Amino acid sequence: MTNEISPLGLLAGKSVLVTGASGGIGAAAARVFAAEGASVMLAARSQHLLESVTDELRGAGHAAAYVVADVSTGAEVARAVDATVEKFGRLDGAFNNAAMGQGGKLDDVSEEELERILDVNVKGVWFCLREELRAMRPAGGGSIVNVSSIGGYRGSPGFGAYQATKHAVLGLTRTAAHDNGPDGIRVNALAPGPILTAMVLKGDGEVPEPVRARVAATPLRKAGMPEEVAHAAAWLLSDRASHVSGVTLPVDGGLTA
């Protein structure tokens, strides 16, 4: 990895893997990274949605490909990383965004539900880190951004299992930054606040009341858009953040200020 900053875009000449890329923040990230000059490998479980976003990027003249993968399965994550290296020659950056939500008081969450969210939100990030680091070390460096949440360092009622997983993502991020800094690999996290994605919006497109209450308490008085998270990730992945590692950057309109 070089610290020379390209005038062509934040991520010009870089190869970046995006998980959870079939919609929401992941799809927005793929679009933003491509616009910033990156070759983008999109990964998610839905082939139909992946094809749609990938075709859109290719139609705009960007280098993009996709691989169907479930991050809760280590072999599938390894296949996604290998596909990126095979397609683009190396892995310079990764945006570990795939996750699932969960609501309900702690004693209302079944063991099966708990195991599933741990598999996706914690083991999934662990699998991604393991395989991405494997690809980046021989190349001499890289940058990884994990997606946590403002729920990763604060509490709120009814989301205990989800918040526990997002706390874990921050622990993984900090440890990975320490372990891999000597190899030239930076690892950071984003902590989005309320972002208007399909996971947040109701089926009719309305913003739920708890989200409206959070927006009302946000200094900027607005919910975030997926693209705003993606732009923050692009900076962290870029060489302009070359001395930034182990941090968690809130993208929350000032809600946690």
UniProtKB/TrEMBL annotation:
GO terms for molecular function: oxidoreductase activity. The keyword NAD applies. Transmembrane segments: none annotated. It holds the Pfam family adh_short_C2. InterPro entries: KR_dom, NAD(P)-bd_dom_sf, SDR_fam. Belongs to the short-chain dehydrogenases/reductases (SDR) family. This is 2,5-dichloro-2,5-cyclohexadiene-1,4-diol dehydrogenase. It comes from Microbacterium faecale.
